[in-house]
Structure prediction request, 210 residues.
Amino acid sequence: MKESYQKLLRNNREWAKSELAKDKTFFEKLSAGQSPEYLWIGCSDSRVPANDVTGTKPGEIFVHRNIANVVIQTDMNLLSVLYFAVDILKVKHVIVCGHYGCGGVNAAMQNKDFGFVNNWLRSIKEVYAKHKRELESINNIEMREEKLVELNVIEQVNNLAKTRIVQRAWKNSSLQIHGWVYDCKKGLLKDLKHEMSRIEDLEKIFRYNL
Ligand code: CO
Prediction:
């Protein structure tokens, strides 16, 4: 019996062939370099692939994904991706995209012990604590969870704005940060309309004199 992973290698060969059939120079052009216009910060969930849900091709979106799409100020991985995307690639938009039915958000709403993952989920519990009154006014648990998914995205957009990387970009060029939620049941993206594009959008205490 063939191992299931071999299917992926076979698919890859077919995909490369079909792309070449459409455009002989497809890989040649891509190998010359990248200049994506967007940075996507999304959940690691296998059901929310950045390129597929946005109808974009290789080369169009720079991607960072982690459990429950959080922006943590000590996360070297996230900060390195953000720095490279903003300072070097000069992306114009950063999109934080959460999704309804997020296992990470669901876990953070419980008091269950998830072992090592507790550390990662704690920042979502902080979002919950901050918006406790609004969340607990929603009696339907599924709807409360959906609200936390949205609030989590909004707080992560705010966290991006608090970084020196984003504030420098606002000073020297233009950069927009957006908060979106993907609805797995419909396949549709929802813009939460929580856009930040200038230092004035951020609470004063977090602004740096750059
Ligand atoms: Co998720």
Summary: Residues 43, 45, 68, 99, 102-104 surround cobalt (II) ion (CB under 6 Å).
